[in-house]
Amino acid sequence: QGILYIVPTPIGNLGDITERALKTLAEVAAIAAEDTRHTRKLMQHYGIQNDVFALHEHNESQRADAVIERLQQGDSLALVSDAGTPLINDPGYVLVHRCREQGLKVIALPGACAVTVALSAAGLPTDRFSFEGFFPSKPQQRRAKLEQLRTETRTVVVYESPHRILHTLADMDAVLGKARKLVLARELTKQFETYLSGSAAELLQALTDDTNQQRGEMVLLIAPLPPETESSDGPGEAAKRTLLLLLEELP
Ligand code: SAM
Known about the structure:
The protein is built from 10 helices and 10 strands.
């Protein structure tokens, strides 16, 4: 039986790929890629030649069977996404889940991921964190999500798009208030990498003053609810938090 390798690729800086990743991409029988053109360009940059076929969110379910068949026949394959770690807000979960069900070997290589890069440099607590992917695009759902996160005692990491950042910050200002610290990590590993920290209102101001800060790829981090806020709450607040937690658990 072959092995499915999960291979992270750079999130901006082309130097951020491991020797092992390059060797794996060169040695597997073929590479399943989110976007074949994008991956071919990357391979060309590293001087790697290999077969590449498409596995993206629209064909993953149907392609997974063919991939599993190849693995069962003895071919080892690699899975890559456009940037960073596959499966982290990228295709791959359906395939890996089915491989596990079939008892096939899956090996993930360590590598670039915007979540861990942002978290390691943001200066917020890293002992516990929650990754929320992208917030819902509909305003009402986004605010409901933020309401849930109001009492979160772990650092929260979210992916954000330049088109929505101002709306998200405005909602965060309304729901999380002025005391909650945020960090906006932008263009990580690239030329214009920036970390901005402050309340939602302060970040809104900074992004309005310098519209360049609204551009590019971004990760938003929300500081945990400070312990003093927790302990100084009246009983009403504590009960409300418990109720919120219970509601989250309900189907
Ligand atoms: N699989 C990727 C990873 O491991 O980070 C994430 C893919 S997700 C479709 C793309 C989102 O990740 C972007 O919209 C942005 O929120 C975040 N992201 C990716 N690269 C980034 C970078 N260089 N700087 C900041 N955020 C980045």
